[in-house]
Amino acid sequence: IAVLFAASLHFIMGPGGMASFGHAAYFGAGAYAAALLVKHFAAPMELGLLAAPFAAGLVGLVFGWFCVRLSGVYAAMLTLAFAQIAWSTAFQWVEVTGGDNGILGVWPSAWAVPKLAYAYLSLALCLGGALLLRRAIFAPLGYAMRAQRDSPLRAEAIGIDAFRVRWLAFAIAAGFAGLAGAVFAFGKGSVFPTAMAIPRSVDALLMVLLGGVQTVMGPVIGALAYTGLHEQLLRVTELWRAALGAIIIGLVLFFPRGLAGMGPRA
């Protein structure tokens, strides 16, 4: 799940050249979309997993229409503002989202209830999503994204609509983040507003930056390293946050281009 979440953020940060401080909004949108379908409409898990990326992609289309018009820190702060709006909606719209109590009883279909079965399903969906994003990076869309990232004026001069390319990339990234959120929701059996809170966005940023923004394998290696460190430190010390921060600082100093800095560039 972390790999797909990080890969979706890397899709707009690496090839797209867009910073996002609020990527958890789309992770949470997918999680809530799946949970609401299952809880309020008695939809099966399969429909929830199918609808989640479309719901998150739609949110990405709306937010992205504003965000991709800006660049640099201004765009990043706008993504953060929209993420806060999404979080506030989930937290305060108690009649629909359950507010701070969340939505409980979001269980997978009977065939996926065994932990091993759901683990294989999660692996297939998340690995498949990450591979699709990688393929998109080396497809015409990916080359257009890199062209507008490196020189918007030159991209426009050769017929590339930079705004539409950035907008489409933003929506695609949101959709895959939503899929990761839906897989997370069914795995946990519940959804809370923390699914789209700022710490979730920070986790995604750390995974991408730790692995390397400019490399294709960066989000994969970064996600594996970050989640692995998190789980191990959580078991051995109560000061795991401080230890995790210190280790990340050390890794950044030793690997300024990321852990996958020598891999193929995105």
Summed up:
The protein has twelve helices and two strands; from the N terminus they run αααααβααααβααα. It has 266 residues and is mostly helical.
General description of the model:
This protein is an all-alpha fold. The chain has one domain. The chain is 73% helix and 2% strand. The protein has helices at 2-13, 24-41, 45-67, 72-92, 94-97, 115-137, 140-150, 152-157, 162-188, 198-211, 218-236, 240-254; strands spanning 103-104, 190-191. It has a two-stranded antiparallel ribbon. It starts with a helix and ends in a 12-residue tail after the last helix. The mean pLDDT is 89.
Low-confidence stretches: none
Strand fraction equals: under 5%
Q: How many structural domains in the coordinates?
A: 1
Q: Output the structural class.
A: mainly alpha
Number of strands: 2
Strands of the widest sheet, in order across it, are 1-2
Mean pLDDT: 89
Distance between the termini: 21 Å
Nearest-angstrom radius of gyration? 18 Å
Shape: globular
Count of alpha and pi helical runs = 12
Counting copies of identical and different chains, the oligomeric state is: single chain
How do the helices and strands follow one another from N- to C-terminus? HHHHHEHHHHEHHH
